[in-house]
Amino acid sequence: MKMLFPGLMFVMVIGFAGIRTAAAAGDMTAQTPVEVKVQLGDKDNSLRFFPATIELETGKLYKLVLHNPSPSAHYFSSETLARAVFTRKAQVLGPDGKTIAEIKGIISEIEVYPGGTAEWWFVPVKAITTNDLKCTVKGHTEEGMVGSITIK
Ligand SMILES: [Cu+2]
User: Would residue 129 count as lying in a domain?
Assistant: First the structure.
């Protein structure tokens, strides 16, 4: 019985170390992000998303890069996507491509101005299929600036 106690302590110490390691590995926001690029409009001012179909998977960290090369401001807006992801941050890039602002908290839509780029870093936590991706600038949805998003 006297010999059993040190052995038990050893098992407990190793056990707690194991729990700590498992918790760190479970931090999905610490992954290297999968980059997905979506262009809002184009130089000819087409009212489209390129691509208009986006496929994602739950549990992976994504860096959704939203670039607007067009002469008009555009929104990237999907209520269903916003409710199916955990947002780590959003970033605004300056003309040299360096981050000039970082926004934390819940994001539901992002407006990108002509020539601008924003990044939305998130981890999808729910499987969805939606056609509610749209640009909410007046008239753009009606002109076809819409898309679909699937999270598997
Ligand atoms: Cu638009």
Answer: yes
